[in-house]
Amino acid sequence: MARPLTGLYPGTFDPITLGHLDIIHRATRVVDRLVIAVARNVGKEPLFSTDERVEMVREDVAHIEVNSAEIEVLAFDNLLMHLAEQVGARVIIRGLRAVSDFEYEFQMASMNARLNPRVETVFLTASERQQFIASRFVKEIAMLGGDVSSFVSPRVAVRISERFAGRKRSGKTAGGRKAAKPRKA
Questions:
Q1: pLDDT tens digits along 32-54
Q2: Could you give the CA distance from residue 39 to residue 137 in angstroms, rounded to a whole number?
Q3: Which residue, of 5, 32, 82, 160, is most buried by count of CB atoms within 10 Å of its CB?
């Protein structure tokens, strides 16, 4: 009997979107075990802490159909190929929204292949309805008071709304900095 195929789906997931969930659902058709790896990525000034993002991913994954694959969600802050070895992944799952994603993803896949040629990268193209969804756009729309409910799950939409309501009360921007006071003319 062949050993189970483990796939690794890394990302910042700040926040997890319906596009991410689509890739997760579809990846469970390809692998027997899917490890969703939430990057700590402190350099990006995430809206949500790593623990919050892991929790949101776990909550959202619990509410989607995952075929027969086992799913695990964890945080990581090391080299992706080291994590792949630690969890026994033979496949890295990456989502492509548009042609513009391909060049970066191709470079990343090539570097990863040099680091560990035993791990393959599999690209799943975004479904037509999810092609334009990006976490950074979701955050920007929410920060400006827009409705993000068609881009994220209801659970995540509530968390985003609460986060920006808290930032408005504290006077902070999306990056955590104090908002500039308007100047008098």
A1: 999 999 999 767 789 999 999 99
A2: 19
A3: 160
150: annotated active-site residue: no
Catalytic residue among 25, 135, 153, 159: 135
Which residue in this structure is represented by tokens 């990057």?
A: 39
Q: What is the pTM of this model?
A: 0.86
Element (H, E) at 7: strand 6-11
- Residue of 50, 61, 112 lying closest to 84 (CA atoms): 112
The residue annotated as part of the active site, out of 20, 25, 139, 163, is: 20
- What is the rounded CA–CA span in Å between residue 157 and residue 148? 6
Q: Which of 29, 44, 82, 118 is catalytic?
A: 44
Q: Across 12-161, where does the E strand assignment appear?
A: 33-39, 70-76, 91-96, 120-125
Q: Which one is catalytic: 33, 97, 155, 167?
A: 97
User: Which overall architecture, per CATH, does domain 6-130 show?
Assistant: 3-Layer(aba) Sandwich (3.40)
Q: Is 44 a catalytic residue?
A: yes
Q: Where are the domains of the chain?
A: 6-130
Number of neighbours of residue 42 by Cβ within 10 angstroms? 9
Spell out the alpha helix ranges (H) of 10-97: 18-27, 50-61, 80-87
Distance, CA of 125 to CA of 1 (rounded, Å): 30
What 3-state class would DSSP assign to 132?
Answer: coil
